[in-house]
Amino acid sequence: MNRRSKRAAIATAALVAVTAAGSAAWAGSGNPKGPATSSDRTALAAAAAAPPVYQPAGSESRYVPVAPCAVVNSETAGGRLNTAVKTYVVTGSTGFAAQGGKATGCGVPAGATAAQLSFVVKAPTGRGTLAAGFGGKTPSNVVVAYQAGESYSVASNTVQLSAGSPGSIAVKASGGAPNLIVKVTGYYVKPIAGFIDPNGVPYAGSSRIIDGTHVGTGQYKVRFDRDIRYCSATVTPYVSPYYASASTWFDSNNPDTMFVWLWKSDGTPVDQYFYVSVSC
Fold it and tell me: Which pTM does this prediction carry?
């Protein structure tokens, strides 16, 4: 055997050994057919069938400024504060007239986690303090101390909102009874995002998703805490060989709802886990 034949034989033997050992996971760096080994295909099938253990981490809130807007004015409705805890609505679009605020609310969404508020204490009947905090709980954060007959304005207080819809704050006057005006200057809200299982149920940690519905094979509705008609939506299947698309305005009677389709590469609808995010 000449030298050239020996080199060719050695190269062929090495290639056979590598292939037999399964050392190459892919048939080539640009192979469009996917996993080349049975173990890779098995792992992919398991991911498609089994519920993922992944739970989305809590998303960070972002700050959204708004033009100062009154959610409370006790001079208009409700009367002076006393030593009892009072709860005031901050989010949504209803319940504000009864507390003297702008009738339709100040545009703070139900999903807001906190609000930036300014407090104006007017003409208290005596010396005292005003505390604010979570709705439904005894407030402990003193935002202003006041004297009889004087007016005090305190801006830029970040107050967490009670969970649920609508979100609210609680206030309590200790001492002389004042009138109170509360204005929103901004709020904190988590992004609209989450993870949905094949039955349409949102995973724990999903943010601002109210509920989901499995409509049919590969078809889902996902409802959010705000109008998303003119928003951009992104849907990503949990298993990469599958595909997805979404419409944020498929039904004008449900402006808070997105429709999602999932399918295989051959166009066959498929039920699967998927991520969803909305940017407005």
Answer: 0.64
Could you tell me the two tokens for 180? Answer: 């109170």
Q: Which helix (H) or strand (E) holds 211?
A: strand 209-216
Picking from 279, 190, 184, 187, the residue whose alpha carbon sits closest to that of residue 234 is: 279
Burial (CB count <10 Å: 0-12, 13-18, 19+), residue 72: buried
- pLDDT tens, residue by residue, 83-133: 899 999 999 899 999 999 999 999 998 878 899 999 999 999 999 999 998
Q: Is residue 260 a contact partner of residue 219, using CB atoms and an 8 Å limit?
A: yes
C-beta of residue 124 within 8 angstroms of C-beta of residue 178: yes
Q: What is the pLDDT of residues 49-66, one digit of tens each?
A: 555 555 555 567 889 999
Specify whether the CB–CB gap between 18 and 10 falls below 8 A. Answer: no
Q: How far is CA 236 from CA 27, 34, 62, 242, 272, in A?
A: 26, 18, 23, 9, 10
SS (H, E, C) 92-152: CCCCCHHHECCCCCCCCCCCEEEEEEEEEEECCCCCEEEEEEECCCCCCEEEEEECCCCCE
CA nearest to 120, candidates 184, 187, 77: 184
pLDDT of 69 higher than 90: yes
Whether residue 257 contacts residue 215, with contact meaning beta carbons closer than 8 Å, is answered with no
The neighbouring-strand residues paired with 144 are 130
The CA distances from residue 226 to 92, 151, 191, in Å, are 9, 37, 12
